[in-house]
Amino acid sequence: MPSLAHAIRNFQGGGVSHHEFFAQVDRALAADSVDSTKLLQILDDENTRGHLPPDVYAELQRRVERVVEATRSPPHSLPQSPSHSLPHGNETRMRTSSFRSTVSPYATGSEGRFGGEMIDGLERIKGVGDTLNGRFVLEECVGFGGMGTVYKALDLRKLEASDRNPYIAIKVLNVQFRGHPKSLIALQREAKKAQTLAHPNIVRVYDFDRDGPMVYLTMEFLTGGPLSRKLRAPGFAGMPYHEAMHIVSGMVKALSYAHERGFVHCDLKPANVFVTDHGEVKVIDFGIARVFHKPEETVEATVFDPGSLGAMTPAYASPEMLEHREPDPRDDVYALACITYEMLTGHHPFDRVPATQARNSGLKPQRPQNLGHRPWRALRHALAFEREERTPSVDLFFKELSGEQKLMPALALGGGVFAVALLATLAFNFYRGAREERAPEPEAKVVEPAPPPTAGAPPATPAPAPAPVPVPAPALTMEAVSPVLSNVPCSALLPTIKGNNLQVRGYVQESYGAAKLKDTLDAIPGVKQLNLDVRQVTDEKCGVVDLLGGYWAGNQMAGTPASVRTKPARTELVEGESVILDVSTPAYDSYVNVDYFSFDGSVLHMVPSPRARANQAPPNYSATIGNPGNWVVAQPFGTDLIVLLVTPVPLFDRMRPEAESAGDYLQAVDKQLKQIAAKHGRDKIMVDFLQIRTKARKS
Asked: What is the Cα gyration radius of the chain?
């Protein structure tokens, strides 16, 4: 008779069908002599060895939970079988006949959905397709962790209120935690801690609740996947250094923020690091994070250590965590170093052996190939088994790993919000009121008249004619520049004057031409030197430039707090390459819109879109949009324009089609921007342009 572990390995090896697999699981659960409280640990261990699909894992978890629930029921509540009784008679194991499974778990209809089966004497365990508290519809299993299973859920209350994003994530506590006498306290503390840890790189937690015996936590819903999915992918042998550093940077920012507020994560692992479709890094599940230093007056009267639930993951836990010592930021440093090593090499530094066992066996991490001396020294320092020898902080670990002198924030802006708003307001009138620097007036010279000649004296030698006084060049003024620029059709141009030097940058219509613009500006009185930095846009982009050029200028005058760039930065893409963008936002809460205007007159909406729905950003935020294979360069090829449009409120109240006519879209945008500007001010609307060329790949 196969054990639970054996059945899972058969399935992972592709040797059995889904129907036969679940039949084996049922037989194994009915016959396995392992104590019921350890069944879920077996399931987690086998999933770690070979990643299971989330829906399969969730169904396995539900079947195991039924056995655990059954063993906790009073002896008279289920038929007893002496051959299956536990030694002390306190628990009765579920028999195979107790399961009323008549359909495949993948069958359609309410009876065939996950969680749709019944057990004698037990309340049905809810799953995909069920509703919690009459409000949250569980639509999809998206992940699992040490404390529970995570579902994508539709919030019916948000849907009723026409919320543009009615989905949330729900983490349902595992049965062993629901059975813990203080599990509700654990979840309440988790929600409270997570709400305190409000940071862009930490998943937002809303609240916790219960529906009968099911205790759950509501969180923001993210699209993407856990880092563990990438690390466990078949054939994964490490990722490029710069890609790994991007993920490490996000983890470091989250952990540094938490450590500053007195919290250690205590269960950092790849499954608790989420990489969104936009490339954002989110640390999730601060479920067993514990306070390592807090003022006495903030300590709550009810003492409860969620670490006692035993939800840590041994492969990433420091020796001190495994020895149940007081948590310390250096515990997270150890876990972070293990994950970093795994990202760079494709395998765990100690082959997933727990730290205490690795230490006692004298195991040492091997230096990865092609890893420089500095990052290797940083990894080795952070993987030390003794706290006193380990890197003291995540910030220092990142500094040593990257060689940076300082861990910089995602976006550094000068000046305050008032200065940004003032500069942006001035930008829309940049042809007037610009600061002028005039050339100094030459000093006047007094010429003394020659004395009259004396009688009888020889004639005086005529004095040389005085040198001509140079006529000063006329001062260069914005009043002279403004009308000239305003007459340039289809343009977004920003002038800067310094003395008699004129610099103009921006965009000009291709048919008008940069050469003609140069001749026109050279003819302005007072221009001694002209620096021209313009890009030519094709005629079909004139609608975009005419509508959004003023907002682009305002953004430039404000120091470009909103920007869009290709990643890596370049202006030419080849057929088959993915369009991946780095975006930064201004110093206020905003909504990000990224549109791709093709030279054929159409526009593709990258954000928000069915592929990237979430577009709300906190102040001074930076993110990567797109991933390999998401948006790919294809025919027709030409010069295209990517536009970042940032607004203080949603641009539209509903999502537009992923692609449409640029003319129709710009007409709708014009109407919305006028309303937003009237209510919130033009200075809260920021635009950046990015022009790229696409071309066919050479055969």
From this structure: 34
Q: What is the CATH number of domain 126-221?
A: 3.30.200.20
Helix axes 329-345, 394-402, angle to 10 degrees: 30
Q: Residue 314 to residues 35, 304, 348: CA-CA distances in angstroms? A: 20, 22, 12
Residues pairing with 530 in the sheet: 502
In this predicted model, what pLDDT tens digit does every residue of 252-267 receive, in sequence order?
Answer: 999 999 898 888 888 8
pTM of the model: 0.46
List the chain domain ranges: 1-106, 126-221, 234-296+313-402, 539-695
Cα end-to-end distance, the chain, whole Å: 57
In angstroms, the CA 55 to CA 95 distance is 24
Question: Of 676, 614, 604, which is closest to residue 165 (Cα–Cα)?
Answer: 614
Helix (H) or strand (E) run with residue 471 in it: none
| Burial class for 662, CB neighbours closer than 10 Å (0-12, 13-18, 19+) | buried
The class that CATH gives domain 539-695 is mainly beta
The reported pLDDT for the residue numbered 386 is: 95
For residue 558, what are the contacts with CB-CB under 8 A and spacing of at least 6? 420, 423, 424, 427, 586, 683, 686
Catalytic residue numbers, as ranges: 267
> 234-296+313-402 has which CATH code?
1.10.510.10
Q: Are 594 and 585 in contact (CB under 8 A)?
A: no
Can you tell me the distance from the alpha carbon of 668 to that of 646, in angstroms, rounded to the nearest whole number? 16
